Amino acid sequence: MAPQSDDLRVLRFSTDELPERDRLPIMREVHGRLSARGDIEPAPGAPLHYSVTARALPGLTVSLFSVSPHTIRRTREFLADGSDDVILVTPTTAGGMVSQLGQELSPSAGDGVLMSAADVMRIDVLRSRCSMVALSRRRLAPLVPGLEEAFMRPVPKNSEALQLLTGYVRLFDDQQSLAAPELRSLVVNHVYDLIALALGATRDAAAITNGRGTRAARLHAIKTEILNNLNRLELSLAGLAARHGVTPRHVQMLFESDGTTFSQFLLDQRLARAHRMLSSQHLAERTISAIAYEAGFGDLSHFNRAFRRRYGETPSAVRARLRRSVS
After folding, report:
1. Residue 256 dihedral angles phi and psi, to the nearest 5°
2. What is the set of domains in the chain, with CATH numbers?
3. Which residues contact 166 (CB under 8 A, 6 or more apart)?
4. Residue 229: CB atoms within 10 Å
5. How many CB atoms are located within 10 Å of the residue 228 CB?
6. Range 186-204 average pLDDT
7. N- to C-terminal Cα distance for the chain?
8. Taking a C-beta distance cutoff of 8 angstroms, is the pair 152, 115 a contact?
């Protein structure tokens, strides 16, 4: 389903709402639209469940699956489609089996396995969630010496590059992050960088990807942690740096490369959260001080000053406008 233009294409499908008699044929049809087509055979006696969200950009498809036990076979018949993509498969549960190039492997939960769409393959899946990232072999090969040797070689889940990749592909859940063509191109480049590092990039490529893909993914991971913990008054630069295995100065440099600072980003996000809460009809009975505290402000006077500088009006004015709109 790789698009021919720079547009982001999204495929969402689930068998849950389908009549049982229709689930298997439609599931096979949908799976055939993904980057590496193959036949799917459900495990005997297991209720059939197949849910996928796939997002495709030129040279890259990121698919997230929730599945019941089944077997995927890409036989010689399917190889006729001419795809020579490479596919990084990352299951979240252990016990499955992948077979290709005369090798069998049962990856541990969270480990990645690189497979070739140009060769016969078999994947036996237990009930689990799984991610698949399909990339252009021609585009990846210059970054990874001996790419062929990387097939069927586990990428440990504790690999820093794989951990950063796992977090970074969540950008594909945010349509706004991929709204502009130049942003989409950057994200694709960063995914290639991270996978190349995980597989063993050349020395020259590693120097580039460390300064590009790794930096972007680490900044994304740090921003995500901040957004998930805005209400924590003790959220600090030093604590974030320690949890991400870098120095506070490195974190500052990441934000500087993004045109801001850690403190400014944290303040902007807390103010934005407070503004959303003050504008929400569902929270109309909550006091301004309670909202300020939930947004991560321990000092109400500081909150009021910063809010007025940011939005040109006081929190009370925002709340009053909300009340007028619902009266």
Report:
1. -65, -40
2. 9-228 (2.60.120.10), 230-327 (1.10.10.60)
3. 90, 131
4. 14
5. 9
6. 79
7. 50
8. yes
Q: What is the pLDDT at residue 204?
A: 53
Contact 117, 87 (CB under 8 A): yes
pLDDT in tens, 204-233: 555 555 556 677 778 888 888 898 889 888
How much is the pLDDT for 4? Answer: 43
Sign, Cα dihedral of 131, 133, 134, 137: negative
Token pair 């969630």 is found at 129
Type of residue at 154: P
Environment class of 9 (CB within 10 Å of its CB; exposed 0-12, middle 13-18, buried 19+): middle
Amino acid at 73: R
Q: How confident is the model at residue 38 (pLDDT cuts 50, 70, 90)?
A: confident
Q: Backbone phi, then psi, for 33, in 5-degree steps? A: -90, -5
What three-state secondary structure class fits 1? coil
Report yes or no: 156 and 162 within 8 Å, Cβ to Cβ. yes
Q: The tokens 């009266």 sit on which residue?
A: 327
- What is the pairing mode between strands 86-91 and 50-57? unpaired
pTM for the full model? Answer: 0.68
Q: Are 184 and 6 in contact (CB under 8 A)?
A: yes
Q: Identify the residue with better confidence: 213 or 71.
A: 71
Which sign, positive or negative, has the C-alpha torsion 122, 128, 134, 140?
negative
Quick count: other Cβ atoms within 10 Å of Cβ 288?
19
Tokens 């020579």, residue?
Answer: 84
